[in-house]
Structure formats: structure tokens, C-alpha cells
## 1
Amino acid sequence: MKKTGFLYDERYQLHNTGNFHPEMPQRLKAIYKGIKDAGILNIVSLIPAVHADQSWIKTVHDLNYILRFEEACLSGMTDFDCPDNIMGPETYEVAMLATGGIIDIAARIMKGEIDNAFCAVRPPGHHAEKNKAMGFCYFNNIAIVARYLQIKWGIARVGIVDFDVHHGNGTQHIFEQDPTVFYYSIHQHPSFAYPGTGREFEEGTLAGMGFTKNSPVLPGGGDTEYKRLLERDLFPAFDTFKPQIILVSAGFDAHEDDNMSDIRLTTQAFSWIMKRIVEMADKYSDGRLISLLEGGYSIKRLPELAKDHMNVLMNG
Amino acid sequence: MFVSRSMIRKVITIDKNIDILDAQEKMAENQIRHLPVVEGENHLIGVVTDRDIRSALPYSIFKKSDCSKARKKVTSLTVGDIMTEKPFYLSPMDTIQDAILLIEQKRVGAFPVVDENDKLVGIISVRDLLRAFSNVLGLGEPGTLICIIIDEKIGQLKKIVDIITEEKIGFGSVLVARYWEEGKRAVFPYLLTNNVSRVKRRLKDMGYVLLDPMQWYIDQLPGNE
């Protein structure tokens, strides 16, 4: 059994998105409840959030953007950069705690304190561009932690798997010219889903050509299509790339009961996907793996999805 | 909507006395397939396409594109010999709709654009029209497309727009397409948001039919029905 960390902090609920927003604090309550009720909390290391050092955020976002976000939040603005990004007075601080918590998890993994971890954070990150908040995301958590691992711990090759039902445009754009970070995403086809990127022919640019891979899935697709595409696109690519750590943008919105998409994955399929990713981490990365929460809006299904996710991380 | 807005202004042109192999090279260098032929003060006298050149060359010569000396011996044809004379052209004040219909009708890939003083001022190709259409579709702007089937009667669109506006969602574009069923239209609002579940639910509650994405189309060729 692995030493698995669970990053969770009540303060992540303070990012207030109003009454009607799908990216709501109850998501985390549901996740926490699922894990707690399964009796897993006694086995895993429950790790609270810490504040991020701004210098790590600057490895991905322009200082100007960080200050603009802080300023917007302090001045009481209720959204930032686009109407999707509803925010409250605590949002900037919570975003700093999300990124900071994940960086702390990365440090613990590199020190050998834990093998892997699930970070149940808000706000999510994979849509956030270098200079623009969008799709409920402010800081691109996964991109920042990838840079942290490279700079602080000398990791040469970072493998990112993004199974959120929406394409992680921010993450892709940040690394598209970079051959040291492989970005793989499987998502609903961009002609039918936000944000309209992540087509099969987007494969990276310049030196990063061949280090981005996208598997778009047509509406109505489910377990069979996901398994087929992951076997075809992800596993062979990581076999060649051999990541020294695997980072996962874990969005649970491809679930059949999640109304944010037309994809119909079953709860079992999420476990299968995660199992295969854990196997890859065992094979190439000494088991090092960090999973970060992105989307996933079915309050009914999040408890079981989170519980299974943790179980796979602990037991493979 | 005018051709002048979408046409390429820096037109690469050619003289009618140029060897067709040089014309072919010019096209390859610039990654284009149409060269307007001009004389005097940018006066349009013809158009030559890569297809005209390929048809004029024996196949073996066309294939061996590297031995240019051998190629030159085989042909002494000039652009003037093979060009389409008095080609059809558009005016800068023709519209994009004119261009789309004419490109279909004349079965060509591009039209030269000539102004009232008989001067070549631009060229507009299928690619330029596609760029305009991609802009209309909102490609490149983050958002979500949905499709609603409405009855073809006055006021339907207003209700939809009202609901979307109440949800504080911005529009990237709205396409209204003919639907196969008589008296119905397919409306495609491109919504600048990741957050469509609520608006979809509200539309359904209002009695609108949201079409299954696998059934969407904005074009259906005759015979594909």
C-alpha cells in the first residue's frame, strides 16, 4: 500500500461563487464526505493548505496578471476577466492557498514523505492562461507545480494527464513549445464543448512539437471510447516520454450524471483510468503522482468518485 | 460584408511573357495557387492557376520538379499561352455573399478584385471566405455551442435571447439554419461561457427542444438526406 496524501482545507470553501454557480463550495464538502465516510481519513495523511510563494506563481503567470487579480479581488469586483469567473473577497487568498497547498504536496513527495496525493482544491486551474482567467480558473495550479518540480527539484520530464471533460487550454498553451512537459488531454470534442480547443491536430509547436496530445471524444461517448483512445494515444506516448513524475488534472465532469457535458463515463471507468495512470507512475516515476481537482459538478456522484480515486491512489 | 474587407491586398502578380515553370516556382514560393496576369498599370488581362500549369506540362516533367534545366528544354510555353483570358473578377464593393455564390457557380478557387479604374486591387480566395466564416462561428474564442429547435414563427428567438441574457451569458455568435422538418429552424447560439447546464435546463423547462449534438448539422448536401 502506498503512502497517500490528501490535501484538503475548509478554507477552500471560502471562494464564493454566488448562488447559482456550478463551481461551488459544496463540491468539496461532497468530496470530503465521500472520503471520510469510507473511513479513509485514518489511513491517509490529511494535509492542510499553505500559502503559495508568489515567486512560484510567477514562473507561469506575469506579475502584472497576479497583481491585477489581487487588485480586482481587493476592490470588491464580483467577477474577473470573464463573467464565468465569479469571485468574492476571499477568492485571491483561496487561489493562493490552492496553489500553495499543491506545491507543498509536491515538496513532500520529493522528500519521500508521501508517494502520491489527491489535492481537493478550489478554484481549479487548467483553463487559466498566462495572462487571463477563464472557465472558473485563476492560477494554473498544474502548470505552476510542474515548473516548481523542474526548478526546485530538477525534474527533467513532467507528464500531465488531463481527464477533465473540458480541454485544458491554459496548460496546453503554457507548455506547447516545451519538450520537457508532455501535456495529454482527453475531453469532449471542442466543436461541442467549452473552450473550443484541443483538436487532434494540436500537437505542440516549435521545440514542443509532439509533446502535446489531444484525444477529443464525440458527444455521447463513454467508457469504450475513453479506453480505446487512452490505449491508442496516452499509454504509448508516455512509454516513449517516460515522465519522472505524473501530474493529473482530475476533473470528474465526464461522468454520465454530470450535466456539464454530453460524455457518459461510469464511476468504474474513472477508477480504471486512474489505475492505469498509477501503473504508469509506478513504471516510470517511482510512483510519484499528484492529482489535482479541476471540474466535476455532480454533488450526488462526487463522494463515490473521490472515494474511489483515493482508493486507487493508495492501492493501485 | 464587402469583398474589400476580406480580400488580400498585396497581390502577387505575373507578366504574361514569363516562362510557365518560373510561374510555377513563384506559386510554390508564396504558397499560392492563383496568379493574376497584369500589364501596364496593374491592368488585369488574365489569371493563371497551378492547375493550368500542371495541365500544360507532361507528367514526367511535373514529377521531377528538381531538374529545372531539363524542364526548361521541354517547354517554351509562357504564362500568356495558357492563362485564362478576360477572367471573371469581382469589385471591392461586391459582398462576401456574392463571392460565395459565384465561387460555387463558377467553380473556381479565387477571384481577382478590380476597381472602377480597371485596376487590380486584390484577390479573394476560398480561404479568405473560410476565414470570415470561422470568425462568424466564433472559432478561437472560448465558448460552448448549443442547438435549439424552434418553430418558425415570430418572437421565438427573443425568448431564447432573454433567457440567455438573464443568465448573464454573452453571445459569440448566433446561427440560424434551415432544419429538415418543415416549419422548424435550428438555432445555434455560441455562448461565451463554460457554464451552460443551467441555461440548458431553463430552455428545456420553457418547452424548447435541445437537439442531440450528434444530430447537429448546418449543411446537408442534396442526396445525403
## 2
Amino acid sequence: MPPATPDLASLRRRIQAIESGGGPAAVLPLGIAAVDAALPGGGLVLNGLHEIMGAGTDEEDGAVAAAFAAGLLARLARRRGAPILWCLAADDLYGPGLAAHGLMPDRLVLARCRNDGDILWAMEEGARSAVLAAVLGEIGLLAPTAGRRLQLAAEASGVTVIALRRWRSGELAARQREAPSPALTRWRIAALPSRDAAAPGIGTPLWRVELLRCRGGVPANWVMEEGDATGHVALAAALADGPAAPRRRAG
Amino acid sequence: MSLWLPRWPTDRLRRAAARADRVDPQPRSPSPCPLPERRGFERKRGGGGGKASEGESPLVTAVTIGSRRLVAAANDAALAVGIVPGLPLADAQAFLPGLAVRAADAPGDAAALRRLAEWCGRWSPWTAPDGLDGIVFDITGCAHLRGGESRLAAEILGRIAGEGYAARAAIADTVGAAWALARFGKAGRGPVIVPPGGTRAALEPLPVAALRLPAEMAAGLERLGLKRIADLCAMPRGALAERFGPALAERLDQALGAAGEPVSPLRSVPARRARLAFAEPIATAEDLARACRHLVAELCRGLAAEGTGARRLELACYRVDGAVERAAIGTARASRDARHLTRLLEEKLAAIDPDLGIEAMVLAAPVAEPLRAAQLSLSRLREREGTHAKHGEGEGMGQLAPGAKPSPRSSPVNGRGGMVAADDAELAALLDRLGNRLGLANLRRLEPRASHWPERAVAVLPAAEKAPQDAASWPRDRLRPVRLLAPPEPIEATAPVPDDPPILFRWRRRLHRVRRADGPERIAGEWWRRPSPATPDDIRDYYRVEDAEGRRFWLYRAGLYRPDRPARWFLHGLFA
């Protein structure tokens, strides 16, 4: 009998450790067991580039995606106690709405840029400055080389970089949606109709959260409900009775 | 010092014509002193009287006053045959049938004079246009840099004459005296220079018009036999003031130095400046960058000695062709970190066009604020160690005393106060880098305001400003959208029942079917902000609606429901 073959999961962990150049990368757990289990290392890798996009008409507006990102940023800001840089071209971000999703705008610096080029430049400047907790850029066109530069800057400084994709035209959306990107993860967030048909009013928001791509992990998707409207916890528990994530393999 | 350009309008025209005529200029060489307009004009040291070159044809500019066309300015050839400013144009043309006439361009002349005065800033920081045909310099403390007053004046006159302008200059203790002597002094070869204390003696033989008096007052004085300034000086002061008003006495006092006369310079002159002049004009990007580093280092040394940091830096590059290229940077907070400031400035250098070359650069810090030494030393230290310092254990050790030199060992664990200061400095440096490309006004911070009106519930402030402690708090409920459209976008909505939410609306050419809705939430503008005749738009009925796909919108109907007119609906925000 040969010695016990190492199981697939531990092998994968070792490969990942080699890929990330040494010890396990620092991660940000999202606080939802099902999601954290799908992410290698048990959470979002801190020093890396992550992509978040909307679905349907929200690809242009990015409201749902922004709320999801705000939840992540709130956790990052709390963890590091450092400010966040949010680069945007359209001046439509609303502070009270961010606060409602857990991100207090007090430590937020908004950088208003003229175009995608300036946004990329500002994101890279921010990613190189270790004083920030995270940098978010609302970006339309993200060339692979530009994404790679962001990823390298994030690796070097430890600043988490989030590319919130906002496409101004359907043609750009079609090209960019499937384009390869050097991001560690790619998320797509879509609004779902509220569940409880009997309740009056619009109720709590319901999202489909898709992990489209994940380096060292497998794609998955969940239905999430944002738990309490007043709390700091911005990402809600995955619904117990929601459709199960189609997970082909244990990750 | 006063510089007089007696033929300014006609010289400008002639120079413009010369430039247009120059069909095939020799290849431009940037050295040693390529003033392109020197052709055809011999350089006159002192430019006494500004005689034009031979063969110049008579030229006048004309201005229309009422129904009459008058000569506004004339060149030397025209003056020689008796055509003087103020002569009716018809008379002038009768004297000299071949007279060239151009329309006077007073605003253009004034603007050009301003540019020339700005360019003259290379000799003295304190220059200003003086009337329509002169430039006044305050050369206090500047003359010795050029080897004395006479050499400075000769250099200025030489350069101005080289540009093709007739010019005369005088240096005196007072602005008034310099003005008088530049215009009425003996037409010698060089500039008129009055030694300190010799003002009165120099002024006494001049005519009274030299006192910058209105023409009719000067004529009136001459009728009374008071032809020279000496005559005026001999008169009792009270009688003069009674007869001619206080203006005459004031002008006399100003010329003699008994009354002060402030000169306001073109640009405010910052006290903190560094200057660099080049023996050979520079034009390459590397040279510019090197000069910049040198200037910043010099300025920072000055700031450090003073205990201040710059909030704004302005770079002026004086080109050999008489233009001034400028660049400016701002910082979010005071800084005298030479590396940081150089980096900011270097990004602006690309916009500077050296053209034929730059012969002098001045870097000034017009805005500076006190800056403690400790902040700088800590951030420097971190830079040197190249590590990201961690929070120390000790609480409250705070910052180093100003001026104390931290030893490399002790400071990384120097308590939270020090590290926070270093972090703040690093954040400020980041904001500066971003702000100088994006504009500092485009770096913002949001602050809650106590207002129900959605647009006024958030204040957008510059990011560099410190957040006050007692701000209003952010709402924690989900009644407000993540994105707010500014301005609200009009939509077509169908609402069958007056105070109900719409069942259908069209936004950006897309139809949304409303499945669920909350509302209305009536928001009225604050009464003290409303325009006095109240408009219906001061009241909005907001609805939060969810469409069939689950997207959530914030809609409102402007004004109260009126059966006699269609409701106006707007989409104001997007929920997550």
C-alpha cells in the first residue's frame, strides 16, 4: 500500500499556497458560512482585485452592485480602520443609501474622474498607497493589462481593489461581460422580486449573488436577503429555503 | 523705476507687420539670444527717444469719437511731418496723402502691455502696467543682482528696444518722479537715474505736466506763469490747494516723496520664492525637471527654516521670446516634503511649452501654513524604512517635540498619536497626487445634514477638510436610495388613482411594471429656502416601487394632485 494519497482539497490548498507565493493569503470572511466555504481560504483575498457587476439594466446603473460592494467595503473599513477611496465618473452616489447598507460615508473619499482612463489612474494611485483600506472604481472599460496592473499594485500594497463595472452601452457590456480579466473573483448581483407576496409594501431586498469566477475556487450562486435594515451586517445570511447553490464539487 | 513706451500702439503694429512679412526666417536656433523681432532695428542702449529705422513709412492709428475721426497715435515718421495725436484724421491725410491708417485697438494695446509687464517680472517681481504706455517697476532690492541700477535699466531698455519698441526709462526715489523723468527728462542716451535724495533737484526744471496732471489743469497752470515744477514748489501750499484742488498738491507730494504712493503689482508677490536663471536657455524635459528639483529643494529649505509648509506652489517659466509659461499645484495640507512636491510639480511640467527656451524660472509658495516638524520627520522615517509601521502599544506618547530628531529605533513604536499623524500625512500625500490630476475640488467627502429634502441631506465637502465631531448622523433605515439622480429624470407614469403609486412607468425608453410600492412619503422643502411665491415643486410625494424584475426605484410626483392638470412624475433614485 502506498501512503495515504492526500485528498484533493488539501492538494488544492497547497497549490494555492504556492501560487500566492508563500503562506496562505489574508482573507476577509464574509460572515456567511456557505459563501465563505466556496471561497478559497475562507473569504475574499485582501490583497487582490475583485470585480462586481450588475445584471440586466443594473449593468448601467450599478445600484444593486454598489450596495453589495458597500457591504464588502464596510467590512474592510472596519477591519483595517482606514479610509476608502471610491472613484466614479457619474456623480450619483448617495450617502444615506450607502449608510443603509452598512458603509458609513465618514471615511469615504470620493474621487470624481472625467473618464475611465482617469478612474484607472486614480485606482492605481490608491492601490499603491498602503494608507487605504480599499479602493473602488466604477469602471466601464477594463483592459486586461490595466487589470493586471491593478492586481499587481494590490498584491504589493495589501490594498483591496474592487472594480465595480458600469457599462454605458449595450455594445460595451456585451464585449466586456465575457472578457477575461485578471481579477481574483468576479461577482454578479441581480435584484430578485420580493418573496412574500402577501405582505404589503416592498419588503426586504432579495438578491441573486453569483460568483462567476474565482481563482482557486469554483463558481457558485446564492440567493441572499439583506438581514436587518439597521444593522452593520450588510451581507445577509443565505436563505435556508432558497434555491441551493448548484455546487458540483466540494470547494 | 518707470518705463515709458512712447510709440506703443504704432510699434505694436509695425512689429506685427514685420512678423507677417518674414516669409522665410532663418532656421531658429535657441541660442544665444534668439529674439526673432530684432531684424532691421539696431539695438540702442538706452533707446533715447526710440528713433525708428530709416525708410519707415508714416503710420497712424485712428479712433472715432462722435462723428470725428482723430489720430490716436502716430509713429516717428508721421510725427516728423507734424501729425500729432488728436489731429483730425482728414487733416493728417491732407498733409500726407500716402499716410497709412490703422484702426486703434485700445483693448489689444492694454492687453499686450499687461503681457509685457508680466514678462518684465523677470527683473523685478513687482511690476505693473502704468497708464496706457508705461510700465512701473519697484526695483528695491533687485538692482544689485544686475550690477547696479544703471546696468539694470540699460539691460531692460536693451531688451525692450531689441523687441522693436521705443522706450525710455528713469529710476528715482518715487513713482511720480520716475514717471516724470522718463517722459520729460533730458533726452539723453541712457536711462535717467536720480541718485537717492536728488529727487527735488531733478524735478524742478521739468514742466508742470510732468506731475501727471490732467491736461486742462496743466494748461491752466501755464497760463498763470507756473511753467516749471520749481515755480510750484515756491508757491504757498494752501493757495495752490484752494485754486487747483487737492489733486495738484497730492501729485506734487507724491513726486517729491512727501506722500506715499502704493504700487499694486500685476500679481501678488509671494514672500516665499526661489529663482533660477540660466546662462543658456533650457528646453528639454530633463533640464526642466532638474531645475524644478533644484527650485523645490531651495524653497523647502526656506520653508523649513520658517517652520511652514506650502499649500500652493506656482511655477513661472520666462521664455526667451517674451512669453511666460505657468504651472501651479495645490496641496491638501501644508507640506515641505521636497520629494512629494517635486513629484506633484513634475506631473505639470508636460504642459509647459519651452518653445525656443526658458531663461529663468521662479517658484513661489503664495500660500503657506505653519507646519510642525514632527509630522515630517515621522513620515520621512517610514519612507526610509520602507515598512508599514504597525500600531504601537504605548498610548499617548504622542508626537515628538518640534525640531527633535527621532532616532530610527524609537519612533516606529511611538504611540498611536505619531502613527496617526504619519497616516494622515500619507493620506494627504495621496490626495495631493489625485487632486493635482483630477482637481482638488473633485476629491470629496460626504457629510450628513439635517434636512429631509434629499438633495440637501448630504453636504459634499472637499476631502482634505477635517470632519467635525458633532455632525448629524447618517440614517440607518432603507428609506433612501443608493444612487440619486441629479437632476431627477422625468418619466411617463400611469397612475389611475390620484394618490396611489403608478402602475406603469417608462424610464429611459424602457417600460417598468410596478408590482409593489410603498408610499407616499411627502417631503416639502424647508419654508425658509422656498422662493417667496411658492412653486408646486416644493412638495414631492415619494414612492418606493419594485418592478416585475425586482428592481427598486424612488419615484415622486411633483406638487399636489390637481385634477385639472396632468401629474408630473420623476424618477429620483435607485435602490438596491
## 3
Amino acid sequence: MAGRVAEQFGAARTDAALLQVALRVEQVAALAYAAAADGPLEGEERTHALRFAEHERRHAAAFETMLFALTVPVRERASEEHLDALLPGLRGAERREALQALAELEGAAIMGHLLMGRRLVALDALRTVATVMAGGAQHLVVLRDALGQTPLTQTFETGH
Amino acid sequence: MVSGRRCSASGAVYEVVGRAASRLRAGRCSRRRFLGAAGALVGGALLAACGRDEAAKAPESDAAVLDRLLRHEQATVAAMAGAPAALRDQDRRHAARLARELVALGGRPVPPGAPGDPASVPARKQQGVFTYVVALPRLADPELRVLVMQIAASEAAHLAALRLAAGEEPVPDAFAGFTETGTP
């Protein structure tokens, strides 16, 4: 999955293309958290997943607004089919599998955001990308904690 | 590095956010006021229409930006005496890397000093996220931008880890503190 996301970011050569990939990843992440909340996650983990789904929707909205500002229309939104294509089996996954899939998706998004740091021409837009990435890094802390991983944080967050 | 179109409105928003961050640190600006400025940032309407390289507009060099970030990080290291060892160690590594990059650009890192900012550790971490994010478009070197994004995300992660350890909501805001909507 991370490889597919990296490929999509890697193939994007313009600001609009980069933002479109970033938008799609956030939309899928929102669906993924919602699916995990409806599926194997319970209690506090489910509460976090629902909250993070909303965060991902806000990230997507920020990218969508940036695309509008570039006069790039957003005609299609990620669907359950996109979720199944990127994270097959998430809906039927066990708790740990689901948490790992979500962490992998967050990491892949972060790797894409770092690529945007290298390639974006509109540097002002990078601030929003960085705040989305920082939000993703915070999600990763919660996911790593739920998975029993240490350390929870990295010196230089790479998404790996 | 310089691209075509200009967008002074967007630059103005970030100037406001940058100034508000300074006032927040100095205790002369309320969190609400700061977030009001930053909310425009995250709203995105002003962000992407600009093909302008802010680094070209501001004559500040990468070395000057790194020097400022290093001073912030050194103050953070000095203020983190009571923080978990893992986070302190990561902050020291942030400072060491920034110093190395500054030296590579011909700069001379100032030696670490005594803590001068009485802010709590979580407040200091939140300031760190603001400081790094606001600095980003001022950097001309793409690799330095990536480094600063990585450190900004690390600072945000520290904040989430501290909240988690304190039994608080670890991620109250979608944009790592840049919007008011997630304020508990």
C-alpha cells in the first residue's frame, strides 16, 4: 500500500497534481478510520478513530480549497472502492491488523508530504501541508501507542 | 526558485501568523487571537493561488532562518529538564542537526544558553510547531524544507505523546494546534 501511495506522489510533477494525490490520500484515510471504527476498534480506540476520521476530512477540505484556488475542480471523491483498492481487507481485519494498516497509511501520507516539501512551487502552500503532516504525526503517536510500539516519536518524522 | 505569480494576501496572512506567534511567546497575544490568524492559514483560501516563492521575497538567507530555528531549539533543550528523557534526547538531536546544517552554510551556531522562557513544556512544544511551520517558505533549499517539516512533525508528535502520558486528549486539533476548532 505504501508503495502505491509513493508511486502516485512520485508521478505528480505539478503543484495541482501533488495536491490531488494528497487530497485523495486524505479522503481514503477518512474512510479508513471510519471503517476501522465501524469494524474491529472498540472503546477509546474507536473514539480516536472517529476523531481522526474527522481530522482527515478536514485535511481533505484544506487540500480541496487549495485546489480550488488553483482553479482545479475536484470532480470525484474517494469511495469505498478506493478504500478497498488501497487497503484491501481493512473492513474484515482484526484490531491489530487494522491499527497497523492505519499506521502504514499515515506513514505513506507523511512520505508524500515530504516529497511535496521538495517539489511544491507554491511555498506558501507548504505551511498547510506541514500542518496536515504534523497532524498525521500526532495520529501516528496514538497508533504506535495502541500497537505497543516504542518510541512513540521520531527525531525526524519520516513516516517509516 | 522564483516562480511567476504573486499573491500578497497570502504572504500577509503568514506575516500576521508569524507576528502573532512572537506575541504569543512573549505573552502579549491570546491563544484565541493567534488562532484567529492561523485559522485563515488553514482555511486554505489564500494559500494555493500563489505561485510565488516567499524565500525570494524575503531577503533572509537560509542560514539566518536556520540560526533562528537553532536558537529556538536550544532554548527548548534548556527548558526540557523535567521532560521524558527520550524527548529531551530527540530535541538535542534536532539542535545538533540544525547546527550542522548552519555550519555547512557558513554560519556559526551560538552556544546553548540557560533557559530564558518560563513556558511549560507542552506550550514550548506548541511554539516549536508554530515556529518551524512559519519558517518553512522562507527556506530556499528544498532539503532544508524537508528537514524542517520533519522536525515540525516531531515536535507535534512530542506534544501528542506528552498529552497521552498526562491522560489528555492527544490530538485535539486536526492541524496540530493551528485551528481553533479542536481547542479543548
